[in-house]
Automatic annotation (TrEMBL):
<dbReference type="InterPro" id="IPR054542">
    <property type="entry name" value="Cys_met_metab_PP"/>
</dbReference>
<dbReference type="InterPro" id="IPR000277">
    <property type="entry name" value="Cys/Met-Metab_PyrdxlP-dep_enz"/>
</dbReference>
<comment type="pathway">
    <text>Amino-acid biosynthesis; L-methionine biosynthesis via de novo pathway; L-homocysteine from L-cystathionine: step 1/1.</text>
</comment>
<dbReference type="GO" id="GO:0016829">
    <property type="term" value="F:lyase activity"/>
</dbReference>
<dbReference type="Pfam" id="PF01053">
    <property type="entry name" value="Cys_Met_Meta_PP"/>
</dbReference>
<dbReference type="InterPro" id="IPR015424">
    <property type="entry name" value="PyrdxlP-dep_Trfase"/>
</dbReference>
<keyword id="KW-0663">Pyridoxal phosphate</keyword>
<keyword id="KW-0456">Lyase</keyword>
<dbReference type="InterPro" id="IPR006233">
    <property type="entry name" value="Cys_b_lyase_bac"/>
</dbReference>
<dbReference type="InterPro" id="IPR015421">
    <property type="entry name" value="PyrdxlP-dep_Trfase_major"/>
</dbReference>
<comment type="similarity">
    <text>Belongs to the trans-sulfuration enzymes family.</text>
</comment>
<protein>
    <submittedName>
        <fullName>Cystathionine beta-lyase</fullName>
        <ecNumber>4.4.1.8</ecNumber>
    </submittedName>
</protein>
<dbReference type="InterPro" id="IPR015422">
    <property type="entry name" value="PyrdxlP-dep_Trfase_small"/>
</dbReference>
Length: 400
């Protein structure tokens, strides 16, 4: 659970460097580990103290494996520096990060405002875990902006945002919502997995807790489950205490994979962004496509907010097909050779899934005009991916 200074003090030395340099240098101290470039994987639970006084006084750098070790400390410090928060904790998954963040700032009897466009498993946490603890959730229109003031109650404890929205990609006016929250002493949280702190920095806009699923772009290779929560100074003590009291930790091997992925995050994101924009623009001209949900496209309703608040876009977006039978959508997806059919995203490979938000939206109606397909554009050549989608559309037409 690192504060916003690296375990080796290097964050202070490099804070004025470009992000490319910081991604390579943050959280590493080769001199501490006999010159090895990467922080070793430290496995261990028990940490020995030289004397009873040291044991009881917790004078050592580490006291117990669950409370941290060099492998975890390095990646936590690097992520805290990138997010611009006071401290970072790691959790075993992105969903556990969302759950822990909510639990750290809510109490029994509180009221939560949750965006209607949130990642569906986070929605289930509200209906099960939080409800069981006596916390009531109201889902709100993600486009409400400053109008969220009308939804506040005396017991509203937190507002949770996700921008762009999961699958549906609505852009939220985060500064407007944060301004209302601060005026009423309400904590704000955001799921920032889509943009990562490279393309969007929530703390700079006043958000208290910034969350990302490190499973996605931080890991980058579809072989890691990890959650990251970054807290500002006001929320850090509560988050750190809750993380420790619940006994949450991650395996050092997973922390090592996250640190390895961090070093190439920028170059990978640049390729994801470039290829996704190429393919999204191509899809916008296809006769089978009704609309493309990608905030970096000028045609997207949320493009102005994206341009104002974000410095880039990732490889994830959705398309809405013109009305066709389910058999046509299935034929399209089943015929794809380079796009795998699988959940999650952020890895090197391209993925596609069908989706329909209508069954779980409660504050807003989901009626986009046709079936939805979410695409993650990986690191393959975009022309090859376009060729694969072209033959997929041929299969769709043949099935209809």
């Amino acid at each position: 659970m690192a504060k916003n200074s690296a375990s080796d003090g290097s964050n202070a030395r490099w804070e004025n460097q470009e992000v490319d340099t910081r991604l390579v240098t943050l959280g590493r101290d080769p001199a501490r580990f006999d010159g090895f470039v990467n922080t070793p994987v430290v496995r261990g639970s028990t940490v020995l103290s030289p004397t009873v006084a040291d044991l009881e006084g917790h004078t050592g750098r580490y006291s117990y494996g669950r409370r941290g070790n060099p492998t975890l400390e390095g990646i936590e410090a690097a992520l805290a520096a990138l997010d611009g928060g006071t401290g970072v904790v790691l959790t075993p998954s992105g969903l556990s990060a969302c759950s822990l963040a909510l639990l750290s700032c809510l109490r029994a009897g509180d009221h939560l405002l949750m965006t209607d466009s949130v990642y569906q498993p986070t929605r289930r946490v509200c209906a099960t875990v939080l409800k069981g603890f006596g916390i009531e959730t109201t889902f709100y229109d993600p486009l409400v902006g400053g109008g969220i003031a009308a939804l506040l109650r005396p017991n509203t404890g937190a507002i949770f945002m996700e921008s762009p929205g999961s699958q549906s990609f609505e852009m939220q006016d985060v500064p407007a919502i944060v301004a209302v929250a601060k005026a009423h002493g309400v904590t704000t949280l955001i799921d920032n997995t889509w943009a990562t702190p490279l393309y969007y920095r929530p703390h700079e806009q006043g958000v208290d807790l910034a969350i990302q699923a490190g499973t996605k772009y931080l890991g980058g290779h579809s072989d890691l489950n990890l959650g990251v929560i970054s807290a500002n100074e006001a929320l850090w003590p509560r988050l750190k205490a809750m993380h420790g009291d619940l006994g949450i930790t991650v395996a050092p091997e997973d922390a090592f994979l996250a640190a390895r992925g961090l070093r190439t995050l920028k170059v990978r994101l640049e390729r994801h962004q470039s290829s996704a924009l190429t393919i999204a623009s191509w899809l916008a001209g296809r006769p089978e496509v009704l609309k493309v949900l990608h905030p970096a496209l000028p045609s997207d309703p949320g493009h102005a907010i994206w341009r104002r608040d974000f410095s880039g876009a990732s490889g994830l977006f959705s398309i809405i097909l013109k009305p066709v039978p389910k058999a046509g959508v299935d034929a399209l997806l089943d015929s794809l050779k380079l796009f795998g059919l699988g959940y999650s995203w952020g890895g090197f490979e391209s993925l596609a899934i069908p989706f329909d938000c209508a069954s779980y939206r409660t504050a807003t109606a989901w009626a986009p005009g046709g079936p939805g397909v979410r695409l993650h554009i990986g690191l393959e050549d975009p022309e090859d991916l376009i060729a694969d989608l072209t033959q997929g559309f041929a299969a769709l037409q043949a099935a209809c």
